[in-house]
Design goal:
With about 400 residues, this protein is an alpha/beta fold. It is built from 10 helices and 17 strands. About 25% of the residues lie in helices and about 25% in strands. Helix 3 links the parallel strand 3 and strand 4. The longest helix has 15 residues.
Length: about 400
């Protein structure tokens, strides 16, 4: 009888005789009996390295023996895990999003940029071509879109509807800014909720081999808009606020920051992500034909106050909020919005505070690169600073 390896509990090894109904090629023990035998390696003091059980059937009596762990199986398992984690994605993009697409690809070796030829016919309608369409069969495919104006939506929708039908394993549409988000409800008969219209269009993107399209949107204006989408699309709602939190930690006065919300809507959207900061809430009231921003709760005195909202258009509300906070003693005032839309160059209204007078300007105005045309306009202009969504999008593509 063989002795058990040292430093291990002793397992009795039985000598089993074949029955009349058994042959040498037939195992005598049921599978569940074999799995009950295990022992650690004699070269290790830990019990992590398990031995397996086998039997010698061409001898009489039959002996049960212990076999060391199969390292090749462990390596195969590790390799399989690595392959699962390294999901490869083919990323297409519209012309406006080229710079952001390149930053996303630089975040991961498993994201490969693919090109589309954007042309037009003589009548102005799109003449489009997807390069190496056969090469994306069986691949995970994504498209980075920008619906910055109605004029560019149709050509991108044509591509978005075509890609899932090329036998791809899965399809993800990344639309950082959902442009019709502010038109989400009817206030009187005859109003058209264009947010619902766009959601219906995107809900009818063809299903790929892997199932419904995944739609990635950052800081949608109204949270209830998630219910506008049909079952053929899986909306994934992300936020740019984590980028702001990381940036605030880098500031020299990071321990003196308060977060201000220009209205109750902004507070509802973002306060849970920023709840560890002192909070200031403002509200807008009507006086005649004017809208005036007032302090609802919180104390800005002596603080570096950062106004947080999802988007900015004309910027009137942010400027009114800035003036009110300055009157109540804020030492510095900055602002963050995920989507810097700024139609008609309205970004020119925002001045840089260079002399410690918060009533005259902002220390920082952070935006993301969800609206690429704005990024080009405010580049290298203070107080603007762009926080890129590239790392957040790259992470989402690997879900």
């Amino acid at each position: 009888m063989s002795a058990a390896p040292p430093h291990c509990p002793s397992y009795p090894l039985k000598t089993l005789k074949p029955t009349p109904h058994s042959f040498h090629s037939t195992p005598l023990l049921p599978k569940h009996a074999l799995t009950q035998f295990h022992c650690c390696s004699s070269s290790s003091s830990s019990f992590d390295n398990r031995w397996t059980v086998d039997c010698v059937t061409d001898s009489n009596p039959i002996h049960i023996i212990l076999k060391p762990p199969n390292s090749s199986l462990s390596m195969a398992s590790s390799s399989s895990t690595t392959l699962k984690r390294s999901k490869k994605v083919c990323l297409f993009y519209c012309a406006e999003m080229k710079a952001l697409a390149e930053r996303i690809a630089s975040e991961s070796d498993t994201i490969e940029l693919r090109s589309i030829t954007w042309r037009t016919f003589a009548d102005g309608f799109p003449n489009l071509f997807i390069s190496n369409a056969h090469g994306i069969r069986g691949q995970h495919v994504a498209f980075l879109a920008s619906f910055s104006s109605p004029g560019v939506i149709f050509e991108q929708l044509s591509v978005i509807y075509a890609l899932p039908k090329l036998f791809v394993s899965s399809f993800t549409l990344v639309l950082p800014f959902f442009p019709t988000g502010t038109s989400e409800r009817m206030e009187e008969e005859g109003d058209i909720a264009t947010a619902f219209t766009l959601a219906r269009i995107l809900s009818n993107v063809p299903i790929s081999r892997g199932g419904p399209t995944s739609l990635v949107v950052f800081d949608i204006h109204a949270l209830q808009e998630r219910f506008y989408f049909g079952d053929n699309v899986l909306p994934c709602f992300e936020s740019g606020v984590p980028l702001l939190k990381n940036r605030l930690q880098q500031l020299p006065d990071s321990d003196n920051i308060s977060i201000a919300f220009p209205d109750d809507g902004a507070w509802k959207r973002f306060h849970k992500q920023l709840q560890h900061f002192p909070t200031i809430v403002c509200n807008k009231v009507r006086e005649g034909d004017q809208r005036i921003v007032r302090l609802k709760e919180g104390d800005p005195k002596g603080r570096h106050v950062v106004i947080v909202d999802d988007l900015v258009q004309s910027g009137g509300t942010l400027i009114e909020c800035q003036k009110m906070l300055a009157k109540h003693g804020a030492a510095k005032i900055s602002a963050y919005v995920t989507h810097g839309i700024f139609p008609n160059r309205s970004w020119e209204r925002f001045e840089h505070d260079t002399n410690g007078c918060p009533e005259n300007g902002f220390n920082y105005f952070w935006i993301t690169d969800s609206c690429p045309l704005t990024v080009k306009e405010v580049k290298n202009r203070q107080p603007f600073e762009v926080l890129s969504l590239a790392s957040s999008i790259a992470a989402t593509l690997h879900i």
